[in-house]
Here is the input.
Amino acid sequence: MPTARLVVALLVLAVLVGQAAAVAADRPVVVVDPGHDARANPATEPIGPGSSQRKIKDGGGTSGVVTGIREPVLALDVSLRLRRLLERARVRVVLTRTATRGISMGNVARARIANRNRAALFLRVHADGHPDPAVRGTHTLVPALRQGWTDDVYVASRRAATLVQRELVRATGFPDRGLSERSDITGFNWADVPVILVELGFMTNPPEDRQLALASTRERVAVALCRGTLRFLGRPAEPCRRGVLG
Here is the structure.
């Protein structure tokens, strides 16, 4: 027969475990992935689990055609703004990087960070480039459906992308390029959690480059990402407000 003291201790432990579970449920994890890093990574990695097809880890990203701002710098700035907004909304945020100063880790490693943290959403922040400077607009990439790789995250990823894209287009005023399903994105194929990649705008388009260089635009973009993320998590979007960073 257990002693009264042991029974009390077990009851207290059960309460603490229950409280910890409640806290975890109340604070979902979002992994925010600022695209690229200071230097490209020409090494290759499998495009998906068990695949013999290999792809470069990171080509380094694009740069502003007018401002000269590099995509990794823009992506990190927006991601830091987003982190503060989401944390204020009681979401735990994990960044895949917090500085722009090294060789990119590659996309398998980024996906594994999201998997390891059991992210409710793996949100990848990028900006686009194109040889034609007239090409412009905001769009969001999602995993294409492939059995064994993305079938477990496909539906949720599409729903997240739809919600985030709607908010982004409203915030930027850039043309809506919609959603694009991609089977060739390594970070999608290795992810075991819902995943999307936002292309905020084209840094090779002069008007969009100038806009994305502004702190006010980056703040609006971060608010939009926050609102879309909270809606995906089934939460009110009101905690997402501007003015977190200058």
